[in-house]
Design brief:
- The complex is a heterodimer.
- Chain A is 75% helix and 0% strand.
- Chain A has helices spanning 8-28, 32-57, 61-91.
- Chain A is an all-alpha fold.
- Chain A is built from three helices and no strands.
- Chain B starts with 6 loop residues before the first helix and ends with a helix.
- The longest helix of chain B is centred in the N-terminal third of the chain and has 32 residues, at 161-192.
- The chains are: A mainly alpha, B mainly alpha.
- The interface between A and B is small, with 14 and 9 residues.
């Protein structure tokens, strides 16, 4: 770990940026696949923050949380892709705004 | 032996129940036998007891069982038999039987023959319980029972809505009086600790002194019940409308028996009234005022039954006058003679109506004297007794009332004078009826003559109306002895002469037409007065505007539910808020996320102290 000496703050900044990009994508995009991608970005941003924090304080918890997030993301993608297929089949489009029939 | 007195009310009651439950399958003859026979049995048993009582005039009290036991309130089901009860029982069963007999022919063509007799029998049973009751609670049971039967019988021909209206009016107006009476019973129980009439008299002697206010209040409340049932001022408006029922019902309930229940109540509780001289004064004044008002009204009516109805109100007024001046026995004697001659008159009018295609207007009758002589003589005798012509039964009783009124210290002569005016009017209107209906030109031809079952009761009642006044009613023990007093000779002479003058006036106006009053009647004042009297002094109009219309007004106001308005306002505010907020439910996920993010930013900013 000697050669790679990036300041903790910088990593947090990158994580924050990634999270914001994901959030913006979530808010702006209408295509459901991009929404899923944005979610993945946000999950990875938080995972990055955990890993960095674990390295900074020398604790294993950060890595454990990373493993957890990884598996959650995998599960989420599996369910999410299923949903994408259903949405495509039902509405013949991937635009989320078309799927507002229940109005909430 | 005297335990068997329960037979008297139970026979008509049983017959009533049988008629109600089974009569659909009975032939008419059997219904008639059952209906009138049960009352006949009662009359026979009453006669038997009367003979026993006259040979051994001791009051008897028979207790059957305790009705209920609540604390120290333990009314019993018990009968009390004394002279007063016996007079009432004889009138109810005797006159009642004659009227039942009359009804068997009068109602022959009616589809609800059995229902009629069921109600009528139930009435007789309730009335008997009323007069035989030993305590005021049992009396009240009978009191309400007769009220219900009166309601059912006034509205007997219920297909006509106006009859139902009249029945409801009778029921509601008397209910006002009954409420006062119930309050009186509560007060009496809390004051005297018992409702047993004899015990109440004893308790009053120890608890009350003459001049207390409590006896006055209690007696005035009892008087309230009495004026309701007996159709006296201010609750008399129901009786003329109650004539919507079959005529024999008017004869039995609204002339001979039920409407005299108020008189009986006051006579029965006279020991209490003796402690309340102001209440007695009120009884006398109510009686006199009602009697005069009704007499004026009777002069202007032309429906034969309404004339008799107002005359009933007027005569009961005389009974109240008698009770008020302390002439208890005279009041009860008038009750009895009135029952005879008024039942006679009502049955006579029923016979006329029966024979004249249901004609009620006396000016469409006329000349009936030779065509239906039985009815003519009934009316002659009945009217003579009503007008208190000498040697008829009405003469003995009314004369006693007037003389006793004169002897009352203080206002006595005024009461006597008022009574005399009433007697004059009574003579005029009763003979107006006779002269218009039975003399002169015939306007409607009778299509049938009364049969035997109608004629026999009329003849028996004729005899009773003639000689009924000479019976000595055995009430001397019941009432305090007022002593024999006689006013000056001229007072008696005037009292005898006034009815004769009244008959003379009626003769001059309506028969020989020598006295022409058309000018007087058709003058503006005369017309106004006639209209005023015809509407019974505007009483119905007054009550309509004083109670009925405001009641409708208030209920119309309340029917829009002003209280609910407050709650409805809360509901509609919530609905508006909901409508407004549900705008945000677009179903677009991006919007939700954006609002979540902004919310989050806002909360964070808040917690960090930026804002």
């Amino acid at each position: 770990m000697e050669g790679l000496n990036i300041p903790f703050n910088h990593i947090l900044l990158v994580a924050c940026l990634l999270f914001s990009i994901g959030l913006m994508g979530l808010m702006i995009r209408r295509n459901i696949i991009f929404i899923l991608l944005s979610l993945e970005v946000m999950l990875n941003a938080s995972a990055l923050a955990f890993v960095a924090a674990g390295a900074h304080w020398g604790q294993a918890d950060g890595q454990i949380m990373f493993m957890l997030i990884l598996s959650v993301a995998a599960a989420e993608v599996a369910v999410g892709l299923g949903l994408v297929l259903q949405v495509q089949r039902r509405f013949k489009s991937l635009d989320m705004d078309n799927a507002n029939r229940m109005r909430g | 032996m005297s335990e068997l007195i329960w037979l008297i009310p139970i026979t008509p009651l049983l017959s009533s129940v049988v008629l109600m439950l089974l009569a659909g399958k009975f032939p008419r003859a059997l219904i008639a036998v059952l209906g009138s026979g049960s009352v006949g049995i009662s009359a026979l048993v009453t006669l038997f007891f009367a003979i026993g009582f006259l040979s051994n005039p001791e009051p008897v009290q028979i207790t059957y069982w305790t009705w209920m036991q609540v604390g120290n309130f333990a009314p019993t089901v018990a009968f009390y038999l004394d002279g007063l009860t016996l007079v009432m029982m004889s009138v109810i069963t005797g006159v009642g039987f004659l009227i039942h007999l009359f009804s068997t022919e009068f109602m022959e063509d009616d589809v609800s023959y059995a229902r009629y007799f069921a109600y009528l029998n139930m009435f007789v049973a309730a009335m008997l319980i009323l007069v035989m009751a030993d305590n005021l609670l049992l009396l009240y049971l009978g009191w309400e029972g007769v009220g219900v039967c009166s309601y059912l019988l006034v509205g007997f021909w219920y297909q006509n809505p106006s009859n139902g209206q009249a029945a409801r009016k009778a029921f509601i107006v008397t209910r006002i009086g009954d409420t006062a009476m119930a309050l009186g019973l509560f007060l009496l129980f809390s004051e005297l600790g018992t409702l047993d009439i004899q015990a109440m008299g004893e308790a009053a002697k120890t608890n009350w002194v003459i001049g207390d206010t409590m006896p006055v209040i209690a007696c005035l409340l009892l008087l309230g019940g009495a004026v309701g049932k007996s159709a006296q001022l201010p609750l008399q408006t129901w009786l003329p409308d109650a004539m919507a029922g079959p005529t024999p019902v008017s004869a039995l309930i609204h002339a001979a028996t039920m409407v005299t229940a108020g008189v009986y109540l006051i006579a029965r509780t006279h020991e209490l009234f003796l402690f309340a001289p102001p209440a007695m004064m009120a009884v006398a004044i109510v009686g006199l005022a009602t009697s005069l008002m009704a007499a004026f009204t009777a002069m202007t009516q032309h429906d034969i039954k309404r004339i008799l109805a107002y005359s009933t109100i007027s005569q009961i007024g005389y009974m109240f006058l008698a009770l008020g001046v302390g002439a208890w026995a005279a009041g009860i004697l008038h009750l009895m003679t009135h029952a005879f001659f008024k039942a006679l008159l009502f049955l006579g009018s029923g016979a006329i109506i029966h024979c004249l295609h249901h004609e009620h207007d006396i000016f469409k009758m006329g000349g009936l004297r030779t065509r239906v002589p039985v009815i003519f003589w009934s009316f002659m005798i009945g009217s003579a007794a009503l007008a208190a012509l000498p040697f008829t039964s009405g003469f003995f009783s009314k004369d006693q009332i007037l003389l006793n009124a004169y002897l009352m210290p203080g206002v006595g002569p005024w009461l006597w004078f008022g009574g005399l005016v009433g007697a004059l009017l009574t003579a005029i209107y009763s003979f107006r009826l006779v002269f218009v209906v039975f003399f002169g030109e015939a306007n409607t031809e009778p299509d049938k003559a009364p049969g035997k079952r109608m004629a026999i009761p009329l003849i028996v009642l004729c005899i009773l109306a003639l000689v009924g006044g000479v019976f000595t009613i055995p009430v001397a023990q019941v009432f305090p002895d007022v002593g024999e007093q006689h006013p000056a000779m001229w007072v008696e002479m005037v009292s005898i002469a006034v009815p004769l003058i009244g008959v003379g006036i009626a003769y001059l106006i309506f028969l020989s037409k020598q006295l022409n009053v058309d000018g007087l009647v058709n003058s503006p004042v005369g017309k106004g007065l006639k209209r005023f009297w015809f509407s019974h002094w505007g009483m119905d109009w007054l009550y309509d505007h004083l109670f009925v219309k405001p009641y409708y007004g208030i209920s119309a106001m309340l029917s829009s539910e002003p209280i609910d308005g407050v709650y409805n306002l809360i509901v509609s505010i919530n609905q508006k808020l909901n409508e407004w907020l549900s705008q945000s439910q677009t179903g677009r996920m991006r919007g939700y996320i954006a609002s979540m993010v902004f919310g989050l930013i806002f909360v964070m900013a808040l917690s960090l102290g930026v804002l």
